[in-house]
């Protein structure tokens, strides 16, 4: 399967949905790139956008995880 070249709103919804369905999901950028068949730059931009919106956080190991709400 060829990597996708764009991470539009549909891809953002898909990634959000997968993290919400599996709250313990921990993926490195390389794992996310393979899982969602994304080009490296697009994947990094998608993950950065989700971190910027505080949906995801990056842990000490470099994995992207669902951000826990602070209450």
Write a structural description.
By secondary structure, the chain is mainly α. The protein has a single domain, classed as Arc Repressor Mutant, subunit A (Orthogonal Bundle), CATH 1.10.10. It has a three-stranded antiparallel sheet. The longest helix is centred in the N-terminal third of the chain and has 13 residues. The model has no long low-confidence stretch (mean pLDDT 89). It is globular, with a radius of gyration of 12 Å. The protein has three helices and three strands, in the order αβααββ.
Structural class computed from helices and strand pairing = mainly alpha
Q: What multimeric state do the chains show?
A: single chain
CATH architecture: Orthogonal Bundle
- Counting DSSP E segments of at least 2 residues, the number of strands comes to 3
What strand line-up does the widest sheet have? Answer: 1-3-2
| N-C termini distance | 42 Å
Strand % is: 5-15%
CATH homologous superfamily placement: Winged helix-like DNA-binding domain superfamily/Winged helix DNA-binding domain
Number of separate domains: 1
Largest sheet: 3 strands, antiparallel
CATH domain topology: Arc Repressor Mutant, subunit A
CA radius of gyration is 12 Å
What number is the mean pLDDT?
A: 89
What is the name of the CATH class?
Mainly Alpha
> Globular, elongated, flat, extended or rod-shaped: what is the shape?
globular
What is the element string, with H for helices and E for strands? HEHHEE
